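User: My advisor, Dr. K., asked me to get a structural model of this assembly before our group meeting. I'm new to this, so sorry if the format is off. These are the inputs:
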Amino acid sequence: MRALGSEEPDPPAAGEFEAALEATRSSRENTDVPVALELADVTKRYADTTAVDDVTVRVREGEFFTLVGPSGCGKTTTLRLIAGFESPTTGTICFRDADVTGVPPEDRDIGVVFQNYALFPHMTVGENVAYGLKFADPPGGVSTEARVAELLELVDLAGMEDRAPDELSGGQQQRVAIARALAPGPDVLLLDEPMSALDAQLRERLRVQVKAIQKQLGITTIYVTHDQEEALAISDRVAVMREGSPQQSAPPQDIYRRPATRFVAEFVGDNNVFEGEVVAVDPGDGTPRETTTGTWTGTGTGTGAEPTPTRLRVAVADAQFAVDTPVEPGGPRPDPGDWLTFCVRPEHLERDPATNAFTATVQSAEFLGETTRVHLEWADQEILLRTHDPLEGEVTVGFDPAAAHVIDWGR
Amino acid sequence: MSAPGPTPSRSTPDGPASTDADSEAEVGQGGADDGGRRHTHRIRDGLERRAIVLAAIATTALLVVMFYWPVATVFVESVVVEGALTAAIFLELLRDPFYFGEFARLVRGESPLAVGTDLLSSDRRLGIVGFTAYQAFLSTLLSLALGLPLAYVLARYEFRGRRTIRSLTILPFVMPSIMVAVGFVATFGQNGTLNAVLSALGLPTVSLMFSLEAILIAHAFYNAPLVARVTTAAWESVDASAVETARSLGAGPMRAFRDVVAPQLYPAALMGGALTFVFTFGTFPIVLALGGIQLATVEVFVYQLVQDLNYAEAAALAIIELMISLTVLYGYLRYEATHTVRARGIRPLPRKSLRPPTRSARDLLPRAGIGVYAVVALFVFVSPVASLLYRSVADPGGGLTLAHYQFLLDRQAGGAAFQVRPWPAIRNSLSFAAAALAISLPMGIAVSVLTTRRYRGRKVIDAVAMAPLAVSGIIVGIGLLRGPVFGLEIGSYRITVAGAVAIVAAHAVSCYPFVVRTVAPGLESIDRSLLESARALGASRTRVLLDVELPLVWPGVVAGAAFAIAISMGEFSSTVILATGTDQYTMPVAIERFIGRRLGPATAMGVILLVVTSISFVIIDRLGGESVGL
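Assistant: The format is fine. Below is the predicted structure of the whole assembly, which you can bring to the meeting.
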């Protein structure tokens, strides 16, 4: 089994299918790097709700790990459990190998940045950054003043020590908060929606800056956001959360290309999700083989070491689509009669396609600059299409079988 | 406002140009037949447009006649003797050890060292001013000691009735002070409930009447809830994220409190302390009833001097008192300006349950402390009111009786003309309060509108309008007596404002700052785009106020009205001066007349005042629809 470093999970792939195969491999864990943080079966229940439901997560040293999901999905509670502001109802939290479940936040070696910055309003910028150095010696044996100057330099605010927090702009305040969190040299940096109070442009700039600082320091970082685009842009690995538990934890490319659930497929980016019955399974030699018993006799039957491309024929509404999916050797596979969910990204829908053609009606179009998002209707379902051409009336679209991604199937 | 025709320019939507534009538009559309209607329309329109300006002018006039003129009169009386400007009266006062104790020797030129050593000795003389400051200082300490724990409980614990208690902290502030004084006499008097309870328990009785302790406890009754109120608000605006950040950076719980929470509480506690000092420095009815003449404070003595018709000395003493109060207030405001921090986007600290989650000392100790505090609080805050109610129906023999109320009825039926009768007192209180409300509500709203808009000089207007809050009722009372009541001679006419009119105006002046306090913060927080939308849709400034702003701040308006009623009903200091020798006495004045001779009828009158005030409060609240939003 190949283990790829999480830094370069996306070598250029010849085709979509190869990319999908690549993604499968890269989502496997990199076991060379030690675990920095582990949540084992962590549950947090309040009086009448379960905020975090049996979460198991492992974050490796130096990893930029993001929790993303809609509001109320438990991502912030998870962060607060890691910080020690809340204690789990059940389960354990380990930093490196040490169980910190009952340890108060001040003894955890963490740095926290909140959405509202939470700068101490009665202290100057310098006093804010120096605050954590009252309880720990500055790393590297330097003086407190030197450490404060060093961190303000790092966040591009050199010389701002004597300013009051409310003299700074939102973006500057957030950078002070980051400097303050980093000053004592914590093991883990926790960021709770740090950008959501800033405007879009600033957010993108700060995002690049945060990522650069994180890379430079190599600090393990847990990042919470509701913005999926931000999550994809900034992270080494993303956990998409819903109703208290992660739906999928994987590198951004993998989350985007191979969503594990329908929720992930629809939460991350635009997507077209189709559901239909599997009517045929073709092992790949070009001859559809109808099976009803589930007995597998095609090629690539689990003897090889690599996943085998398998073509499925799926009946969706009045149409039949060909869908290619890799089947792991010996792994589960769809059978005729199964109800299958798959998705096709709008950018993979083609006009005048070679395969899987269907005719849809144009509803509306949004010009987005580099592309136009067209809303189509087909079989009582909204279909999204990315194109540069002006479209109206009836259009014929389709997709390459390899561009489809199978999410799930069952009886 | 699409006005066709020859409309040259429209400078501002409120300005005369726009009014002209409107009327011209009407001519164009309606023709000459509608002339009369158009005329009334125009007057109404013009009045409406200028309603805020008119209210502001009326407010200014009332303030000048009933506040600034009287206060100025007092000031002039203290520095002008027989037509010549002199500081003699002040110097006389400052050199008199009767007023300034050992400090007077400093003014007379003695060495500060000698005075300092004498001050440290046990038989030092503080004088009346010194004693007043001393008791105010002790009252402040006691109020902080009782108020801060309450703030801690209200801000950090969740329990049934928390909101109710939080709302109740406003109550002492609006309780008629003379009624509270009667409550304290009923509690601490020789035959008071405290001694009754002590002797029932087989303990020795105490004599707290006419003692400093009784005054301090009564002051704490008033001011500790105030301290608790401002500190609770500050505590609730501490951002939990800031505390959590401190914890994440390595601070333990106590350290995080010291570094992050406490610095945000100091300004509030200091504000509570400064206000307490100022209020208790100017204390009057409490000391009058509880202290007697041997514990007289400046204000009581000023009243005494007024009774003796020694106006000049009374005025000078009152001015000195005012100067000391304003110095403390100014010092506080300077501090506040440099120490206030804005809170935004905050997530308040979570509240804990009063039931200890574990049996550890960390959970049990604070809660045990709260239990002890609850007992003390019950004694300080509940016993005066309970005693008042109990003593009004208590029989000296130990049973219950309605004799005290019967006494009031008899007095009503057969009292002599010079005697105080209950019904006129109730009737006067109610009608004065209604009239004061009718004046102070529009006044307060107008001032709120003027002080929440941004323009140069706003702070000056704010200070000028809020000054009645800082100047004691006694000064205003003397001033009214020497100014408007005495009258202004113009030619052969003498214009006087006296009797009921003077009392109502004085009440309105002391009520409306409370309307401002409850309405202005709401107006301030209204999103400006709401007002701008309404203006863009064609509403005049006054219409915006009536249609958009007031409905949004309605709970504040209702609260302001309730305050105004309560303040007017309880007003004592200036009323007692203005009502002397007339039949315009109110319930608090009647209580004061009774208290010296008969405690029973005084308590009965106190209960009536309590009931009438409470009913008015409830009616205002119900009429307002919304609950008091405080």
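One thing worth pointing out at the meeting: Residues 270-410 of chain A form a domain with the OB fold (Dihydrolipoamide Acetyltransferase, E2P) fold (CATH 2.40.50.140).

User: Perfect, thanks a lot.
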